[in-house]
Amino acid sequence: MKRFLLVTLFLAFAAGTARGQAGVQTKANVEYAVHDGVSLLGDLYLPSSGASHPAMIFMHGGGFSRGSKAGYGNTWGPYLAERGYVVFAIDYRLSKPNQTTWPQALLDCKAALQYLRGSAATLGVDPDRIGVGGDSAGASLAALMAVTQDMPQFANRYPMDAFAGVSTKVKVAMPIYAVYDMTAQYKYESGLANNPKNLEQFIGGTPGQKAGEYFETSALNYIREASTSLGSVAMPNAGAKIPWFMAWGMADPVVPPAGQSVAFAQALRDAGVTVTAVPVPKIDHFWFPVTSLTGKKGDPECEEITPAKFSCSGPTPNDYVVSQLLDFLAHNL
Fold it and tell me: Residue 8 domain-assigned?
């Protein structure tokens, strides 16, 4: 009888586990490249069917100096995979007090895109339907991937990569509360009592010391150069040829919406881009990879307990954006 009970409990546990993973295959810590001796890893979330699926690469936030791909394993990774999308949530090299990571972080992200496209047949990915997204610093990198795509300046930096020659074009961009203007963000952070100095560490100095780097790390500059109002002197940009989905918290004190997301959305529209913009009321920063998808409707009802940890008595910020996000993907990716 005891053996029977143990077997019954085991089978019930196994069945519950199978239900929890129904329709999704997870491959954790997939090595997508080795750069300068550093193994770069990502987590794959794959629909169970073997068809050719659209795919999204997600980069985590953390001020370019911390954070992990793990958050997407609790939210958008399995959620989108259940709905027919391959999701590749990646880690990239993080800056340290004596080690900048520009442009290394961007080059790592591009290598992940090349891995996904180069392995498309094996992974069941449609190589022509790959988008990029992320939150905060990861969203800034996603935006930079979208505006640089196959630019020679960021190509072939790691010729030993297995897929070094593969295109880094993307079909859609989905940055969530990103920094698009590094100089403006530096000025804002300089006025804070507790200045994090994330950008100085990431880029290697102040805008006065690294003017060129602050310019090239700001996706806003690439899009403003493509504004249709410039007429014949406008600089064509691949990022102005794809649709964008943007979301941000309207009460964000970390990355002020007016100087970043709102300004960037307008610049995209000035360049003729189709933009789906979703300002989220009553919420600030950090929420995209960590708040649940409950199916509840309405404005978010959440309290931020600590950074990146929320207690929600009603709809979450992800509940607020999910219908428009899924509609955007269905029509554009």
Answer: no
